[in-house]
Design goal:
single chain, alpha/beta, TIM Barrel, 8-stranded parallel beta barrel, 8 strands
């Protein structure tokens, strides 16, 4: 099995969920994920944001606010329809994933709840559509004000496994409260990480150090050790708009995440229209794996 930082487009095309997970594990914390809102107009006109993220070093591309019933990726030669995901994979040569939100209608909210479409919500139909479109992984998490809870994520992990088996790599967790009253203490973080990996998540998503109050290196480290002991991976997420901060801040968070045991470093979709600033993707990539691997990643053709 190749490390993900050595993989080309042809390698990814043959991978299923367990293969992708093993490839990420083998890279030892040198995996970068870029979260993107691909349905809005691309800030780069006729070049999609996912092509830009790939060009600046992203290994994994995650679509946010993407409706699987109405697939659209701005900036592609063909922007709508059943073939946009396969086209995006050909143009980037990268594994693609989508957020599906396990909304809990009974959740206690700090903010007024925002309703989302069925194509963005985790359900049997959306999982089947995700597979039919050709996605490689799914992320079960919550956007602000949607009312996604840890218990709903736990149920969602079981649902994905029931419908998709091992076909998809499952990332699951919360990078912020998603509008609910759920907060993060050390005990709550470790408990949630334990429950998600036990339920079958391949990758447990947790807030990166410094992104939500109280999460520091020792706190994330404790949760990461529990996840790793059960064979899971950890993704440290920057989903609190700090992906749009200066490059030094992003670089510091990336290194702290790796120190804490993160296998994947995530940068969210804020900063520009629907993506982190490219210079911040580059800064994180160089911090995590140095210039040699970063420049190889940037330069290699997706046709390899």
């Amino acid at each position: 099995m190749k490390r993900i930082l050595d993989c080309n487009g042809s390698d990814f095309s043959a991978m299923k969920g367990p293969d992708l997970k093993a490839s990420i594990r083998a890279a030892e914390g040198r995996t970068l994920l870029s979260e993107l809102i691909v349905s809005v107009p691309s800030p780069y006109e006729d070049v999609s944001s996912l092509e830009v993220a790939r060009a600046f070093g992203a290994d994994l591309l995650l679509f946010n606010l993407f409706d699987v019933d109405h697939p659209r990726i701005s900036g592609l030669p063909v922007e709508e329809g059943e073939d946009v995901v396969s086209l995006a994979k050909r143009l980037t040569g990268r594994p693609l994933g989508v957020n599906l939100e396990p909304v809990d209608p009974q959740s206690s909210m700090m903010e007024e709840r925002t309703s989302i479409s069925a194509g963005r919500t985790l359900n049997r139909h959306s999982i089947q559509r995700l597979q039919a479109l050709g996605f490689d992984f799914v992320c079960l998490t919550g956007n602000p004000k949607t009312g996604v809870t840890k218990d709903a994520i736990l149920r969602g992990i079981h649902r994905v496994r029931e419908v998709a088996g091992d076909e998809l790599m499952i990332i699951a967790g919360k990078m912020h409260a998603a509008g609910t009253v759920e907060g993060w203490t050390e005990d709550a973080l470790v408990e949630a990480a334990d429950r998600f990996v036990e339920a079958g998540a391949d990758v447990v998503l947790l807030p990166a150090p410094g992104t939500v109050p109280g999460i520091d290196i020792p706190t994330l480290r404790k949760a990461a050790e529990r996840v790793h002991a059960q064979g899971g991976l950890v993704m440290a997420a920057v989903g609190t708009s700090q992906e749009g901060a200066d490059a030094d801040t992003v670089r510091a968070i990336a290194l702290e995440s790796k120190k804490a045991g993160a296998d994947i470093f995530h940068l969210g979709d804020a900063g520009l229209l629907g993506m982190a600033p490219p210079e911040n993707l580059l800064a994180a990539s160089i911090a995590l794996r140095g210039k040699r691997h970063t420049y190889r990643r940037m330069a290699a053709s997706p046709l390899r």
